[in-house]
Design goal:
Order of helices and strands: HHEEEEEHEEEEE
Structural class: alpha+beta
CATH topology of the largest domain: SH3 type barrels
Number of strands: 10
Oligomer: single chain
Radius of gyration: 26 Å
Shape: rod-shaped
Number of helices: 3
Number of domains: 3
């Protein structure tokens, strides 16, 4: 067998190490780019669904303040977050989602529920349960009497109000 001079053996080992390190660097860059590409294709409902599937505790920041709990349901344009004694239906495009605490137990999948925020409002109309509609700088407690094409009619103890659906950021329901 051919005996290499020691300096060539060292050089060969160094070249193999450098080539391996270079390959590992390229693989890491590829993984980062692949993950970034995957994240770019997710929609807002998909982001909320991922948090729901994991069962993480979240904070949703809305114009009306902070909502804390776990994501119970995700529709196409809203999500339901459940806290200790309150449930919130939050318009996705009107909130900032923050993950507060990773769950170790896991979450659940999307089952039942209304697909759209307007359909969720129609559920409240059908059940007649008391809710609080949170608008910018105003909270309105009552029952939804009618869900129309672009507004809801809310009845309270002393009055009736017509509220444009586009103004509604959050619906709060006591559990």
């Amino acid at each position: 067998m051919y005996d290499r001079p020691p300096h060539l053996t060292d050089l060969a080992a160094e070249l193999r190490r450098m080539a391996g390190a270079e390959l590992l660097d390229e693989l890491e860059i590829t993984e980062v780019e692949t993950e970034r590409g995957r994240l770019r294709h997710r929609s807002l409902p998909q982001v909320w669904e991922q948090v729901m599937h994991r069962g993480d505790r979240v904070t949703a920041t809305t114009r009306m303040g902070l909502v804390r709990g776990t994501v119970d349901y995700v529709g196409t344009d809203y999500a339901t977050v459940v806290g200790d004694d309150t449930s919130w239906d939050i318009r996705l495009e009107r909130s900032i989602l923050s993950q507060v605490e990773r769950s170790t137990a896991g979450g659940h999948t999307v089952t039942g529920g209304s697909r759209t925020f307007k359909a969720r409002l129609a559920e409240y109309e059908a059940t007649g349960e008391p809710i609080t509609i949170l608008l910018p700088h105003l909270a309105m407690r009552g029952r939804i009497a009618v869900v129309a094409t672009d507004h809801v009619v809310v009845t309270a103890e002393t009055d009736t109000a017509t509220v444009p659906i586009q103004l509604i950021d959050v619906i709060r329901r006591d559990l």
